[in-house]
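Service request form, structural biology core

Requester: graduate student, group of Dr. S.
Request type: structure prediction, single chain
Budget code: on file
Notes: please return the result as C-alpha cells.

Sequence provided:
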Amino acid sequence: MGIDSVSRVLSAQSATERARCIHEYEGIARAVSAGALQQFQRVSVSEALVLGLLNQGIRKYICVFGHGSTDIADVLASYQDAGVVQTYNVRHEIEAAHCATMLRWHYGETAAVITSIGPGALQALAGSLAASSNGIGVYHIYGDETTHDEGPNMQQIPRHEQAGFLSLVKTMGHGYQIHTPQAVFAALRRGAATVFNPVFAGPFYLLMPMNVQPTAIEECNLLEFPGRPEYPTLRVDDEQVFAQATQLVHGAQRITIKFGGGASGCGAEMVELADLIDAVIVGGAKMGGVVPYSHPRFMSVGGSKGTLCGNYAMNHADLAIVIGARAVCQWDCSGTAWKNARDVINFNSDTYDADHYNRSLLVTGDAAANLRRWIRYLRHNGFSQTAAESQWLRMNRDNKRQWEELKALRYRSPLLFDRTWGREVLTQPAAIRAILQFAGEHNAVCYFDAGDVQANGFQIAEDEVPGRTFSETGASYMGFAVSALLAAAAADRPEYTFALSGDGSFTMNPQILIDGVQHGVKGCVVILDNRAMAAITGLQYAQYGREHATRDTVVVDYAALAASVRGVNALTGGFSPQELLRALQQAYDYPGLSVIHLPVYQGPHEMGGLGAFGSWNVGNWCEQVQEEHHRLGL
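Core staff response, request fulfilled:
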C-alpha cells in the first residue's frame, strides 16, 4: 500500500479515536508498535503539539482559553475525554504560570500553560519570571497573530513587524513560533532542551499562530516527536582540580560553604565535606532543609536578609566554597559578603556562574558528583573527621546561639500594640513560627509569599528535611504563594499546604478563592494583614528616615470576602497564639480550601521583626555598597 492510500484510509480517524488508542496502550510508540495506530497520520498542528508534549510526559495543562487558543482547546477536550490529559481552567494567566511553576518545583511534574493572544499572553509572560528566575522548566503556549498578515489581529502587539511576540519572549528565555506546520518537531526538540535542561531549566514559549493551529499535517510521523531527553551526569575528571582545591583548604583557617538552588540534592555531600575540612555551611533563602537546621555546622541563611550567624560565617571566611549558586544580589549582599575571602572554590554546572568571582577555582559539572569525587580525594590524602571543636566552629556556634536567643526573645513577646488595629496583635515572627510549628506537626508544607512574610519566614524556618518550605526568592513575585497553592489540586500526590501571604500579595492574586474550590484544593491561605508594604516601609525608614505611600487606609474584611465564595472555609486567626492555633486546626480539618485572616503588627518596635544583617545595593546605600564591592575586588 502506498503512502497516498495510507493517507486516504487514516484521514477518517479522529482525534478522539487516536486519544483512545494512546490511552489504551499507554503511549504513542506502544500504540504504533501494536498496530493500533498507523505511524503516519493526518493531524492538525494543534493535535501534533499535544501529541509531542505527551511524548515528553506532559499531561497537565493550566489554561485560560481565548479566541487565540480555541483550536488547541478542542483537541485537549478530546484527549481529556479519553483520559490522556487533564486541563485546569483558571481565572488569571499569572495564576496559571505560578501554578505550573510550583507543580514542577514542589512535585516534579512538568505542565504546560496555555493562554490566548495579547493581554493574556503578556500576563503569562510576566508570571513566567518566577520560573525563569528559579530555573524551573515549564512550557508556555500562547496564541499568536496569523501568518498571512491580512491585517492586524485583535490583541496582537500593535506594530507592523513580523514575529513581534517572538522577539518579546526571547528577552525572558527561549521561544519558537510555529510558522510552518512541520516545524512543530523542531520546536518541541528545542523546548525539551530548555524545559528539561539539567544545568538551569526555564520556561519555553511556543507561539501558535491562530491560522496555523487547525492546519493539517498530511503525513505526520507519530514516531518523529522528540521525547524527554536524558542527559548524562557531567563531572570533572582532572584530578589536578581537586589537588588545587585541597591546597586551598590547607592554606585556610576559616572555611564557609555557601549553597544556592543548584545544590538542592547535595545535602549529604556538603555535610561530609564540612566535617572533613572543618567548614561551616550557610544556606540560600529558598533552600530550607537541604542541610538539617539542627546540624552543628549549619549556620542558617546568609545574605541581605540573612541571619546574624549566617552573615558572620560569610563575612569572616578566608576561603569560600560556593555550590550551585548564581550569586544574585541578596544572596551575597550585592557582592560584599565575602569580606575576608582570599579565594573561592566554585562548584557550578554553568560556566558563567562558576566564574562569577575573581580568584576562583572552577569545578564545573554536576555538583553532587564533583563533591563526591573531591571527598574521595580528601580521604585518600589523609583528611578525616575530628571530634574536637575548632575555634572557627566554636565562634560560629556561639553566633548561632545568639541568633536563637534573638528569635526566642521575639517569640516570648508575641503581642504588640498596633496603631492601625488600635489594640495588641500578633507579630509576624510569632505568627509565622506558630504556623511553621503546626505545619511540621502535621507534615504539611508552607509557601511564603514575597515581602515581609517571606523575609521573616525563611529566617524562622528550621527545616530538617528539604521540601517543607518554599520561598520564591528568585523573583519575589507578589501573589506567587497563593496562586501556587493551586498546584495541590493538579498534583498526583498532593500535600496539605499553607500559603502564607501578606494582604498586599493576596489582593494581587485572589483568584485562588474561586479556582481553589473549582479544582478541589485542600489547603489554606493565611493572610497576614498589616495594611502596609512592611518590607518596603522598613527599607524606607532605614534609608531615608520616613515612609511614603506604603500603607493602606481601606478596611477589608478578608474573612467576609472569602466567605462570599461558596465552598471556602473562612476563618479569623484572632489576636493570640492560642486563637491562631485553633484556626489552623479548623483549616486543616476542613476537606477543602480555607482562608485565615490574621491581623499582624507593623511598626518600628524591634520585637516586631527579625531585622537584617547584611548589605544591599538599593536606594541610597548603593554608593557605599558599590565602593565596598570594588574595594574587595572579588
